[in-house]
Amino acid sequence: MFTDNRHPEKGIMSAILGAVSVGALVAAVVFTYRDGGQAQIRYAAAALVAAIFSVVGLILGIMSRFERDIFKLFPNLGIILNLLSIIFVVFILVLGLT
What we know:
The protein is an all-alpha fold. It has helices at residues 9-34, 41-65, 73-97.
């Protein structure tokens, strides 16, 4: 590889935050299902922290996407994972309101 491109730190952090938030949301849903549908406060707290992580990760992913001379793998992956997490949180909230 003879290029000056690099992996942006913000993009890597965005991908990490996205993976953590998706993992935390999946774990909260699985544990709530195992408890018979009764969500404990710690699962709700994990979902709240995951939502905060996903918003921060989305901002970092968008910021890193505008950098020049970078590889776009991690910013794109971070944006996708964080959007997926935000959509998942909104879906859970809508299900809870019905």
